Amino acid sequence: VGEMETAPKSGRDVPPKKDKLQTKRRKPRRYWEEETVPTRDGASAGPPCNKKNRELRPQRRKNAHILKKSRISKKPQVPKKPREWKNPESQRSLSGVNPGPGSSPLPRSKAKTRSRLEVAEAEEEETSIKAARSELLLAEEPGFLEGEDGEDTAKICQADIVEAVDIASAAKHFDLNLRQFGPYRLNYSRTGRHLAFGGRRGHVAALDWVTKKLMCEINVMEAVRDIRFLHSEALLAVAQNRWLHIYDNQGIELHCIRRCDRVTRLEFLPFHFLLATASETGFLTYLDVSVGKIVAALNARAGRLDVMSQNPYNAVIHLGHSNGTVSLWSPAMKEPLAKILCHRGGVRAVAVDSTGTYMATSGLDHQLKIFDLRGTYQPLSTRTLPHGAGHLAFSQRGLLVAGMGDVVNIWAGQGKASPPSLEQPYLTHRLSGPVHGLQFCPFEDVLGVGHSGGITSMLVPGAGEPNFDGLESNPYRSRKQRQEWEVKALLEKVPAELICLDPRALAKVDVISLEQGKKERIERLGYDPEAKAPFQPKPKQKGRSSTASLVKRKRKVMDEEHRDKVRQSLQQQQQRHKEVKAKSTGARPSALDRFVR
Amino acid sequence: MTANRLAESLLALSQQEELVDLPKDYLLSGSEDEGDNDGEREHQKLLEAISSLDGKNRRKLAERSEASLKVSEFNVSSEGSGEKLVLADLLEPVKTSSSLATVKKQLNRVKSKKTVELPLNKEEIERIHREVAFNKTTQVLSKWDPVVLKNRQAEQLVFPLEKEEPAIAPIEHVLSGWKPTSSMMPVPAPCPGNPLGSMGICAYDIRASAKLLNSSLLPLLPYRYHKVVKKGKAKKALKEFEQLRKVNPAAALEELEKIEKARMMERMSLKHQNSGKWAKSKAIMAKYDLEARQAMQEQLAKNKELTQKLQVASESEEEEGGTEEVEELLVPDVVNEVQMNADGPNPWMLRSCTSDTKEAATQEDPEQLPEPEAHEVSESEGEERPVAEEEILLREFEERRSLRKRSELSQDAEPAGSQETKDSSSQEVLSELRVLAQKLKENDQSRKQKASSEGTIPQVQREEPAPEEEEPLLLQRPERVQTLEELEELGKEECFQNKELPRPVLEGQQSERTPNNRPDAPKEKKKKEQMIDLQNLLTTQSPSVKSLAVPTIEELEDEEERNQRQMIKEAFAGDDVIRDFLKEKREAVEASKPKDVDLTLPGWGEWGGVGLKPSAKKRRRFLIKAPEGPPRKDKNLPNVIINEKRNIHTAAHQVRVLPYPFTHHWQFERTIQTPIGSTWNTQRAFQKLTTPKVVTKPGHIINPIKAEDVGYRSSSRSDLSVIQRNPKRITTRHKKQLKKSSVD
After folding, report:
1. Is B314 helix (H, G, I), strand (E, B) or coil?
2. Region Disordered: start and end of each range (chain A) (predicted)?
């Protein structure tokens, strides 16, 4: 193909020169020139091949036209420049024959950019197709609960569910009666295999809750405010009355972090290895557990902090305040990223769903609201609860649980991506004491409730994600696998500074710095190196480079450019018009719409 | 003469080299024609005379051409014969002699030697050389263009380059190694008239064998698996039973009885279906035999009877209809078909008939549900059905009306509607309709009046009722008016932002608004009922529980008390919350705005001192106004403050210099927007995305690319050297030749 391409081009390029030479040669014989020129021209291009001939036709005519001029001026190529500019394809093989200075790099880079974009697009499509195909491997289906012909699922009690499910699942419903050590907070590990709980009166325990194998059980002889697993089940962070302590799974105290004092709530950001602590003193502290350094200590300036949750999508910490606002924090900023006025009373609980789309808040005004976090921060639905919810939690598949006194209400949405509809509770359950901690177990249809009477693990069909990523969080992993995962996770640790509202910020160009750098460069050089050089007509002899003609030539080039621009904009307009037309035809109401109620 | 010229021009076309000599020929031929027309010659002479008038021109030597028919011995003329005069002819004597031959030859040789042409000057020669060399080189090098292009665009290059051999083995090899693994597979047999025939398998066979391969080589299918499992279980049970009989005969008997019972149950369920041998034969016979058909139906009825669960007596009526339906369904389609066949109708019609019955059955199925509630629903549906057409018409009418008189009030629609409807059922429908129309109108109006203050009222109303219903405590305060104002402010802002909000919010607002504005009795009631229901559910349950929870009751009270206190506190502080927030937002907006620079120097050019301020004119003159920044993201979100500060820590990780081919940052962003990590991609995709651009084999020498590697012959160098060999002498003729060769 290359040969075919190059051949006509060289041919195209040569004839004018030849003509030029011929004219030179023939000068003394101008006498019969008029007769022979047309035939000669045909003869010179005639022999090679027909196809070439056809291709050359428009060009040749032009040459013939130029030829007449070329008796006067020896450089016939100048007016050709804009044409070459338009199709960069021809530029490639001409390799420097074309005189246009500065015009050649631009189209080439343009074509390159286009090809790069095309490649990127193709890659994206391919990967998405592959991802869609691999969805076939997600064999497990989520559980569900359906009432018999219009029966309210909220009326189905745990005993019924336990009766209906298989033995293995039924064993996941259990109660731990621990009335001695006060209301319990609890936390599941990321794999959903381990459970840690701490009672207010100092009771701390961790167990493999599936097999009910106790890992450790200690009394820290101090009030326990909150408890949380770190990146693996081997490490436990316990917010005690004075300081933050870290234990291992044997119950041995490893660290006592005195810089985090009077901690009320803990959150662990698994991809950043950050432990976020909210304290009574009003500080939000980020502790990097991989290096043991405090990354940031932010003063929220809103008094005591005791409502905290993390957004699993972008690792932003949500704090609830007594003035009804929820503030969003990142360790990179001293001020909150955003502040949302949610309630007219203080905020009692906050929860964010796993896709980072919805935030549920409950306040002292007894209202439960679901906010849209995709830029608008507006309430999508609101519901007034008789007692208000003191604790909220989202499940992996978007179920929302609220603990109100000693009752737990669960709401479910229509699909996975839809917010839970607060119209009708999906399940309700009454516990033996007021709720103090709530969490859905990952990858299981289980909700763990910590209350004053101990721990209750209840079955919530459809709560957990049925398919787990074996490389990321494998509930069945062995010790070796865990160690390997730990190393990999540490290698892939995300820097704490990258936490911001848009987690894809890293894939964006820092435009401000870019502009600044460009400006500075221009200043340094004294001119803009990327600016297109203005057209400078070449000086011509025999009095033809008079000022008037120069201006005229300049004018011509400018007009040509302008025309190009106009043409382009017109084309764009037409396209837009077409699109609009297509859209309007697509969205035309069908005749059957009138039947829709 | 014209013919002559034409011939010459043709000659010129074919032989370019003779171009230089051509004029001579032309002249010669001109002299030939001289005899024919003297006028021409005269004219020529005239022209010459005229041209000679111009002093600059060199005078040409006059041509000697005398017209004389006689041949004189003093004069030479070639006129008569019309041939060219050859010099050798002059030598020729009357009698031929051999001694003259050498002289002749010499003469010829002398004649063939032409005068040496004038060499071109040096610059010109060099220029021509350059041109030609350039053309040659470009031509030679352009051969590599596609190769270079291909390599540049290649996703991956592997060095050292190796010639690939076709990786696909010919089919003969593949097939010769293949052997049937089971007896079910067709043995390769010659298949005539097939291109693949020589290999012994035709295309069809291949396909068939592939199918068989699939079935035999794949792991056990689920049903097979279950079969195997079942068998195993039965065996195990039998063994256990045997053991039990030995140990405890009484228990064994019981077990036996149980097994028997289970078997009976199973048999019962299986019996009287049309799957037995007898039933199948009857089904065939039923086409032609009325009795057989009857027998079959009887059997099916029995089956129905046996498999049916016991029903409550009150529902028996409905159930009967249902059984009939099911019966019809259970009778194989063939039977019905035959009945129709007697009449001999169109087979297409037949198909539709049977499907119709099916459809009817499926339609009636939900109605036949044993629940009385469901039945009621279906009944009501049935009632509505006749109304439906009317309703559609009405709706159309209504819509048209609303379109025409959008500005009019909605009450106008009511009388029109009531006139047209008579029966009660249609009135119900109409009320719904009215609500719909109302909604439509409201939407339009609200859209129109967005900017006006009226539009805010519904908004405020919307926000009000929820607390009103649930918490009288909150609203019975002395400062209520203030809060309302604040709320209005909020509402206004919300109103503005309505345009930009996503749809779900809007819809939610509308759906909330409509029940509040319109006293739509049934809907409201429903909602209220639900609310009360919820309340009942929670309030009634919790006290009973509390009484049970003895050990924690103290704390509970404590919490309750605290809650109460906080609630009261909150109730009085509620309006402050909003005001404070608005204030905070205002401050944040102010702080983020670029500041103006005031360059006035107090006391400069005028009186200074304590208490004197520079004049307003001066201040205005020296005030540098800051450029207006971009609009804030939370401009239209009254309840949100979004921090506009740039996150420099994140920015440190971002790309700040555009890489080469990109001219706009969005182009580059497009290329890096897909994550390439294995966390986000499948393994295959990840590998493909991260393939290295160049792969080299360690320990191998990478030689430069050769023409043979890409399939060219390597003679291209010799072409280049042609010109270099003899650059000394070059004349115009050479030049032309070179040129020609370079063009071709």
Report:
1. helix
2. 1-128, 525-597
Q: How many Cα atoms within 13 Å fall on the side-chain side of residue B356? A: 8
How many domains, in total, are found in chain A? 1
Number of residue pairs across A and B with CB atoms under 8 Å?
A: 284
pLDDT for res B249: 83
From B408's Cα to the closest Cα of chain A, the distance in A is 23
User: Is B650 touching A (CB cutoff 8 A)?
Assistant: yes
CA distance A186 to A241: 17
Pairing type for strands A427-430 and A407-411 reads antiparallel
Could you tell me the CA-to-CA distances from B27 to B24, B34, B587 in Å, in that order?
5, 11, 103
DSSP 3-state helix, strand, coil percentages of chain B (rounded to 5)?
A: 65, 0, 30
From CA A123, how far away is CA A133, in angstroms rounded? 15
Q: A281 and A262 in contact (C-beta within 8 Å)?
A: yes
Residue A352 lies in a domain: yes
A 151-180 residues with CB < 8 A to B: 154, 179
Q: Which domain holds residue A314?
A: 153-484
Helix (H, G, I), strand (E, B), or coil: what is residue B655?
Answer: strand
Pairwise CA distance, residues B520 & B526, whole Å: 10
Q: How far is CA B306 from CA B265, B272, B301, B325, in A?
A: 10, 9, 9, 17
Residue B154 forms contact with A (CB below 8 Å): no
* Domain-located, residue A539: no
CB contacts, 8 Å: B657 with chain A: 514, 517
Assign residue A348 the CATH number of its domain: 2.130.10.10
Examine residue A172 and state whether it is found in any structural domain, yes or no: yes
> Residue B427 — very low, low, confident or very high, per pLDDT cuts 50/70/90?
low
Q: At what angle do helices B716-725 and B122-142 cross, to 10 degrees?
A: 180
The sign of the dihedral angle between the CA atoms of A519, A523, A528, A534 is positive
Contact assessment for residue A202 and residue A223, using Cβ atoms and an 8 Å cutoff: yes
With a pLDDT cut of 70, the percent of chain B lying above it is 40
pLDDT at B207 over 90: no
B chain contacts of residue A125, beta-carbon cutoff 8 Å: none
Residue A41: inside a domain: no
